Amino acid sequence: MKKAYLCLIALAITFTACKKGVDDFPDTPNTGIIPGGTANAPYQPFSAGAKWVYHATAGVGDFVTEDTRTTVLNGKSKKIDGQVFYEGTTTSAAGIVSGYVGYNNGIYTRTIDNAEMGLNTLQPLYNDSKNIGESYLQTFSYVSEGQTVNARFNVELLEKGISKTVRGKVYNDVVHTRIKTEVGFDNNWVSYSANDVYLAKGIGIIYTTTSAFDMEIDKMELVSYTPGK
Q1: Highest taxon of the source (predicted)?
Q2: Distance (Å, rounded) from C-alpha 146 to C-alpha 47?
Q3: What's the pLDDT at 11?
Q4: Where exactly are the structural domains of the chain?
Q5: Yes or no: is domain 2-226 CATH 2.40.360?
Q6: pTM of the model
Q7: Starting at the edge strand that comes first in sequence, how are the strands of the sheet with 107-114 ordered?
Q8: Helix (H) or strand (E) holding 2
Q9: Tens of pLDDT, residues 189-216
């Protein structure tokens, strides 16, 4: 249980996960044709070639490392559970990983893939139907030490329409959510980790932090954004 839960904690807010690569989502072939066109969502562009460069720090205390993470959408898409998602890659010192982002039924999501845990799910980042202080819950399950564990994402909208300064640049019309990963124990939900996510209108993610046991273990700050075609 501990090993699998720590792997959940370590998930960064880009496409990175504990396993490189992305699942093929059986019976859902990726034709490279974007169903319905490339319409951008208000807080997440989907156009081919859209590029985000982040300055990242990871670790605690004397064991903090710095890195550059670059995410690029490649123009491919597929349907997952009947919903449209767009493919991208994130390049960092750890290598290259692939993943998908989407906006369906008012919910911004990304894919999480971890074969060791039997985890292949969609993580919500922001539900635009919620008011400040309201939460959106999405359940999922994974495998730990041979047992299925029930878990959920608890996404609370903390702020909306704010300004946020990141590395000296001011972004307007920003939403701020907190995503807690909660595990079911004895009819209770327990959380030791959270992602704080800031999304700017027309740009996407500009700032994120990941915390575990009340300690920040990962931070990403947008350095530059280049719109796609």
Answers
A1: Bacteria
A2: 41
A3: 46
A4: 2-226
A5: yes
A6: 0.84
A7: 119-127, 107-114, 95-104, 83-92, 65-80, 51-58, 215-226, 204-212, 188-200, 169-185, 147-166, 135-144
A8: helix 2-9
A9: 988 789 999 999 999 999 999 998 888 9
